[in-house]
Amino acid sequence: MDARLPLYQRVRDDILGHIARGEWRPDQPLPTEAWLSENYEVSMGTIRKAVNTLVQEQILYRMQGRGTFVRRPQFRDSLFRFFRQLDQDGETVVPDSRVLSCVLETPPAAAGKALAIEGQDGSIRLDRQRMLQEDNWVHEQIWLPAERFSSLLQMDVAALGNLLYPFYEQYFGEVVASARETLTIQLPDAALAAFLEVAADQPVVNIERVACSYGGRPIEYRISRGRADRFRYQIDIS
Amino acid sequence: MDARLPLYQRVRDDILGHIARGEWRPDQPLPTEAWLSENYEVSMGTIRKAVNTLVQEQILYRMQGRGTFVRRPQFRDSLFRFFRQLDQDGETVVPDSRVLSCVLETPPAAAGKALAIEGQDGSIRLDRQRMLQEDNWVHEQIWLPAERFSSLLQMDVAALGNLLYPFYEQYFGEVVASARETLTIQLPDAALAAFLEVAADQPVVNIERVACSYGGRPIEYRISRGRADRFRYQIDIS
DNA sequence: CAGTGGTCTAGACCACTGT
DNA sequence: CAGTGGTCTAGACCACTGC
Predict the structure, then answer these.
(1) Which of A30, A64, B30, B229 sits at a 20 to 30 Å CA gap from A194?
(2) How far: B37 CA to D18 C1' (Å)?
(3) A213 touching chain B per CB within 8 A
(4) What is the band of A96 on the pLDDT scale with cuts at 50, 70, 90?
(5) pLDDT of A163-174, one tens digit each?
């Protein structure tokens, strides 16, 4: 507790500590603002400012007349930030997905650099198939730091559901909070053309993604490839 | 002004109105909190709450001891995310641009809808050429509401510089603050293939952009088309 | 130095929830 | 009804800026 920090920040950090230690739990109410005000010996305005910052960070939520609660981490909102492919009607497409393989390997240079993998630390590579109405839609290669995800090798990856990010969070405590994507257009190699069932001179879209945690630490490096003629990508810039 | 809304929201909306109308401009200070408090006849706490929301929305920024300022939209940065070619050193290359024509026309359906052009109000259409080292790089069609941009028809559009958004701001007081882009891949029609000097079976990237002001009011509808093999698009998601 | 935003207090009244 | 968060006020003092 750094006494140089403003009061409301110290209160905010202390509240967050109670949550992190599991003393105040998801969907349960915090003590009332009046109680916090008395026990921290600060005014209610300062308590409100501290709680407000945590509400903004989506760690707490308020319900007027009932109380202030610890938020249960919601996968849904964060997930749909990362799906930018639309169908013809502008609706977000969430295809069915299946993990095809899971192996330990030395990452290629781009993946190793993106994940800041040093020396002899390896990576876990998943190959993944995304389908849309029985068609192979996208082929994905995913690299994860072996250091943090090693137990994946003992799991039945074929049983994984459509969404990997909730899975990362549930089993490894890794929350994807931001990502950088780079799009390019290329011609497929023979294997990819066969997988997508397109001619070798039909262009494919190449999406490279580096996904990071709240602190900006890299979690996942992913390359997704799909046929260009069905591709539609929308983004809001501000 | 809805009197049922909380005071701080009405103040926030009114401040935003001044910015949207260009009365309070980027990088210039707002009136002081004391002045706002007196003129809106609310307490400084309420003013601070209103200003805080706009700071969080990244529309204002504060500098202690100096004042509160209108943030200059970081939109120019995002411009260079598009159609950028990296040279050997990985540096961004900025294309030269030239406006080819400027006419009054009835907008096509998509442009009219995006710009909310009603009835007999027309649009001004610019055709624009973006070049990179003597090559035609991108062809752009741009629609603007005739109602707000009519004097463009009397201007020497060939003399316009590389960047249109600063020009909109300087001559029409229209500040582009956000945009939505949709990317697709298509085959070029004959005219576009000739312009880009590519074969008719070479895919092109199609970027549709709706650019809006602070208040979310549409300012510009733009379609940019360029050859896919040189395309590289990077975006940060959070 | 005067003027700005940054923090903090100690109240007030209102709107909503559950009993 | 009592208890919760939501809004709002009118001050106080501090930290920083520019002159």
Answers:
(1) B229
(2) 24
(3) no
(4) confident
(5) 898 888 888 888
Residue A38, SS3?
Answer: helix
- Compute how many other C-beta atoms are within 10 angstroms of the C-beta atom of residue B94: 15
Is residue B52 classed as helix, strand or coil in its secondary structure?
A: helix
Query: What pLDDT, on the 0 to 100 scale, is given for residue B72?
Result: 84
- What is the Cα Rg of chain A in Å? 22
Please give, rounded to a whole number of angstroms, the shortest distance from the CA of A154 to a CA of chain B: 32
- What integer pLDDT is reported at residue B92 of this predicted model? 59
Is-above-0.70 flag for pTM? yes
Q: How many CB atoms lie within 10 A of CB A58?
A: 12
Residues of chain B with pLDDT under 50: 81-84, 86-88
CA A203 – CA A197 distance, rounded (Å) = 12
Task: Spell out the residues 6+ positions from residue A92 whose beta carbon is closer than 8 angstroms to its own.
Answer: A80, A83, A84, A85, A86
Position A214 scores a pLDDT of 66
The single-letter DSSP state of residue A91 is P
Q: Give me the amino acid identity at A1.
A: M
C-alpha span between A223 and A181 (Å, rounded): 9
| Residues whose beta carbon sits under 7 Å from strand D | A 29-30, 32-35, 45, 48, 62-68; B 6-9, 41-46, 49, 63-66
Of the candidates B236, B237, B238, the one whose C-alpha atom is nearest the C-alpha of residue B81 is B236
Q: Contact at 8 Å (CB) between A54 and A36?
A: no
CB contact under 8 A, B234 and A182: yes
Q: What is the pLDDT of residue A101?
A: 94
Read off the amino acid at residue A114. Answer: A
Q: Where are any strands of DSSP class E within B106-217? A: 123-132, 135-145, 178-186, 204-212
Measure Cα distances from A232 to A174, B83, B155, B192 in Å: 29, 17, 37, 20
Alpha-carbon distance A190 to A193, whole Å? 5
pLDDT for position A152: 94
Average pLDDT for residues A39-59, to the nearest whole number? 90
User: What tokens does B91 get?
Assistant: 């540096």
Q: B135-146 burial, b if ≥16 CB within 10 A, otherwise e?
A: ebbbbbbbbbbb
Whether the CA torsion A47, A53, A58, A62 is positive or negative: it is: positive
Q: How many residues does chain B have?
A: 238
Is the pLDDT at A79 greater than 60? The verdict is no
pLDDT at B20: 86
pLDDT in the model for residue B82: 46
Question: How many whole angstroms separate alpha carbon A141 and alpha carbon B3?
Answer: 55
